[in-house]
Amino acid sequence: MSRKEFHHLFYLLGTVALAVAMPLSHFLMGLSIFLLLLNWVAEWNWREKRERLQDNRQGLLFAAFYLVYAIGLVHTTDWVAAGEEMLGKLPFLLSPIVIITSKPFSRKELQGIFGAFILATLFGCCWNFGYAQTHTLGNFREMSRFIDHIRFSLCVVMSVVLGIHYFLNVEQSGKLRFLYLAISLTLLAYLLYSQTLSGILIMMVIALCYIVHLIASRADRKTKWIFGSATALLLVGVIGYTVHITRDYFRVKDPAPDTSALTASGRPYTFEEDPVLECGHYIGYYVCEEELATAWAMRSDSAYDGLTAATLTRYLNSLGLRKDSAAVMRLTDEDIRHIERHTANAYYVRKGSLRRALYETYFGMSLYRKYGMLSESSMLERVELWRASWQLVRDNWLFGVGIGSQRAALDRQLELQHSPIAGKKLGRGSHNQYLTFWLAAGIIPLLYFCFLLVYPFARMRNRVTFVYFALILTLALSMLVEDTLNAQTGRMLFTAFAPILLFHNDEP
Hints:
Helices cover 67% and strands 1% of the residues. The protein is an all-alpha fold. A hairpin with a 2-residue loop joins strand 1 and strand 2 (281-282).
């Protein structure tokens, strides 16, 4: 093996390790990046690198974002945090340069890289699923054992896209093609089971775009009509089912309360004024606390404290039962176990259910409307963060508040607004990557970043594949509700996979 072949093999294996690490290990990601950079320097073929750079000068536009973003250092007040952030964002500068100046991967090598990524994501899904079956989870976020559940869902989405792409477009043996299909369906099932709404919605948007792409690329009218009709029916079905779930949750199913009603034992009920509606029933109606405590002691060895009382009341309410001893005695042993684990709604035990995910969101909205509480809804917490971030952006729209200073500024703004999450979100970002860039460094880096997202589609269309389009769409949509590029996995999807797909011009 020649020296040049050795360095290319090292580059290939390092990239495979990076692809495996994205859904599984922050440490391995960092190590892979370091070894790839070390190998790039050790090649010492600067003339070849310069020639490749001249052929792929557009890649410098991606690397230049790091320098444009550095504008936010001009007036930062926290140089320690600023230094950590700029160090963490070095892949924006280094990854595109390493990729565009290295020997491009062959089609077979690209399949090996992305195949390793798919298998690593599949392993993560299987491990997470097994953990969920053997442990009691407080929520589904705890199921993701390797990286943050939202970033992991992005890896699942991209693995599905790549798997379907290989199944439909790559010439290979029939068994291998259907293996890609089986893996993709398994990953889709996990995505639904994990109830990561952002990942599910992104997957639906990509699927819709792909169907439109297929329709547009087909010449015969009959095929277009079949695909178009199937897509329309699918959309109508999803929207109709969502509307049905929403209507079923908010439609009042109880008649006007009879405040003189008594339990079967002759005890009076209490009726809360302006109670919260959940699953079509008012939680605060027909409650006999005395009977609940007595009946719970007969059904369970767990203490009847405030949390258990609230959980039991909501659980009975979700079943449409009154909150008395007769209702508690009607519960099954499985229901009792769910309540002991503080599952407050009978629909919450339906794993992988869209109804469960929507019901949790709707209950959080109800609590916010009545009590101003945000703890039950991550979506409403994001809205609160967006409000505070937007106020800061309006006051500092040109240059932001300074790289490294944005988190402390956001915490102060939450306190000024007397936000319910003031103090809770210490050190957290805006949960919107566009707002985070704007808040940290001002309008210029934000506009430049948006330019990077659209530039390849305008000036490099011969290099843009559907897989690249799906990757950028996945990241762009996730950045609406997350600081995607502040996390290592999100950064590497953008700074490594995107340049590879764009500048290693063979279809993956």
